[in-house]
Amino acid sequence: MIRRSLEGAFLKGLKDKLYQFMQGRNGIDEMGSVLIWTSLILLIISTLLNSFILSLIAFALLIYSYFRVFSRNLGARQAENQRYLAQRERLRFKLQSLKVRLGLHKTHKYLKCKKCSKKMRVPRGKGKIEVTCPHCGEKFITRS
What we know:
62% of the residues lie in helices and 14% in strands. It is of the alpha+beta class. The protein has 2 domains: 2-103, no CATH class; 108-144. The N and C termini lie far apart (81 Å). 8% of the residues are buried.
């Protein structure tokens, strides 16, 4: 019984010291988590392929992720994380748009406006049609 209480006190003391050490530091955020998981996956692949270059890349990512975790420059790390999140959202939006376009490719055709390069959707199988760009108002004739 005494041993358990000593172990509990020791672990609590360790937890308190770790908490004090991490105060004012960045910690793990979205970008750091992705970097750590990517480095672990690359380490597994490099082990399977026996690739020294992949191992170096994986270790470099791991070192950078730990640098970010223990960094005290919170403003810079938060700005990096915000840029990462913005890029991830752009990629997610593009993939979602592609999924929608692939689902409608039999019934609709996608065109680019010749003036403003905006994308628009027209129905297939209507022959020659006059299309008006909803963004700039440019009119042109195309086959659908």
